[in-house]
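SECTION: protein entry
WANTED: fold as tokens:
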Amino acid sequence: MKAIWKGTVLAESDDTVLVEGNHYFPAAAVKQQYLLPSNTKTTCSWKGQASYYTVFVDGDANPDAAWFYADPKEAAAEIRGRIAFWKGVQVVQ
């Protein structure tokens, strides 16, 4: 799977975890140079607290377009150490 925004590959891995239609990439497969930590946090009743990244490509920002669960609840343990994308980031095979 690949995560692509504005023609730039943000992440690529054959080892994604699919949860609620979102592919969670291993953090090591994500090109961190395109991510800037955000102060945004949300809470999911069964996954726990999500933290976000703003995606930056060629000077363009996509606020909170990537997220992760630093300490997911037990029911979502499989996404620990993984990052997912949305807000126009294409995830393709």
Observations:
- Residues 2-92 form a domain with the Metal Binding Protein, Guanine Nucleotide Exchange Factor; Chain A fold (CATH 2.170.150.40).
